[in-house]
Write a structure and sequence with these properties.
Blueprint (H helix, E strand, L loop, with lengths): L5 E9 L17 H14 L4 E6 L3 H14 L3 E3 L3 H11 L4 E6 L3 H10 L14 E9 L3 E7 L6
Parallel strand pairs: 1-4, 2-3, 2-4
Antiparallel strand pairs: 1-5, 5-6
Helix pairs in contact: 1-2, 3-4
Length: about 150
Amino acid sequence: MPQPPIVTTILLIRHAEKNALPPADPDPHLSLAGRSRAKLLIHVVGEAGITLIYHSHFIRAKETAQPLATQLGIATIEMGDALQMKNDILANHVGETVLVIGHSNTVPDLINQFVGAGSVPVIAESKFDNLFVVKKWTPGAASVTRLKYGKKSI
């Protein structure tokens, strides 16, 4: 009798709102709105069974991950390359639910790694309210669902 497929769930968001000042800062902290959105993740995905949070090396991604990771008592891992992240998830977290906190360019790239090219539209620089749910079945099929969370981005 064949084994039922194993589903890995990857939740993907862009980091929360960042400080706009000073404008030349390449690695700004979260703004007040961003800190509020990061805390909202506890309510939105806090009971989703997340076992690990991936984030980029930027402060805003780490600060977005921190409240949820603290609440859940789980680890975070810094990893920025989409292919490396996909491979790590599929090698070490099959059947689990993980959260990925990326950026307007890296979130679509990672989704496309799982689902296929052209699966996700461009994320505008002013958008912080997207929550993508990727379901990856072994041996191969994948799907993506786009949701919104928190206050609507402008």
